[in-house]
Amino acid sequence: MKKLQFYLSGFLALQLILAAGLFWREQHQQSLQQQREALLAVTPGQLQRLEISAGDDTVSLKKEGDHWLLPELHNLPVDSEKLQSLLDKIADLKAGWPVATSAASHERFEVAEDKFQKRLRFYSGGEKPVAELYVGTSPGFRKVHVRAAGDDAIYAVTLNSYEMPAQANNWLDKQLLAAGDVERITGPDYRLEKREGKWQFAEGEKKLDADKARQLAVALRSLRITKPADEVPEADPVRLQVAGSEGELEYEFMQADDRFFVRRGDREQLFELSRYDYERIADLRNEALVLEEKEEPEQTAEEKPEEEKNAAKS
What we know:
There is one protein chain. It contains 6 helices and 18 strands. By secondary structure, the chain is α+β, with helices and mostly antiparallel strands. The chain has 2 domains: 44-171, no CATH class; 182-289, Immunoglobulin-like. The protein has an 8-stranded antiparallel sheet, with no helix packed on it. The longest helix has 36 residues, at 2-37. The model is unreliable at 28-35 (pLDDT under 50). This is DUF4340 domain-containing protein. It comes from Microbulbifer thermotolerans.
């Protein structure tokens, strides 16, 4: 009996040891997870300004109301999806185990205060950043070394350096002038309307090439600018009026040598665009939109139906 009690006591002690081990392991993992999440204390929704530096370039992105703008680029809007993607990745950075922990290693990994590849400063309203991140060398595909200001530890994280450009034009919303879903287009010598889902000429009896009309609508819906224009060309504009999901819009397209420009009536700023986008919108005329009617080839005697041949004989 005593031997059985001895075995049971030993078994109970073993269970307690195993339970304690599992508890310690869980607590240790939670502690590591908390450390991993503490790499950078950034809450995207509370940020009011982001400053990115690389070499001699620095760009500021500033939040006004619900919109992020580029103060150094005519206060034009930021590509919101691109910025949100970066902020989400920064907030989700996991530290893991550091690759180095000494101050002497900062320059080698290019995350020092005076030697870095990228530096990101995050502001929540004041003049002092709430967080600062140094981005350095890359240990592999889609990986970079990073260091938070005030911490000597350097980590390898999943991030792309090209996702944080230090030039304002790379943050510009390139679809700023896109027309949305188009229902009506008035060009230099044509008027098109979408009726019951089908494109037609607004007036006249000519048949419209529906494919070309759809291509024009898609070109306006997906219109992309490349950058703000630094000068206004001396050229006669091609004007279009467009109606659709974005309301009534007026466009002016211009060409000067090998440069192409566009302006939309609700914005004073003139922008440059690609030759491709210019040509598929501004170069289109009524003649190209008319559907070419194919003439039926005249049938030879051999191709005529038997009834027609017999009628001709009689």
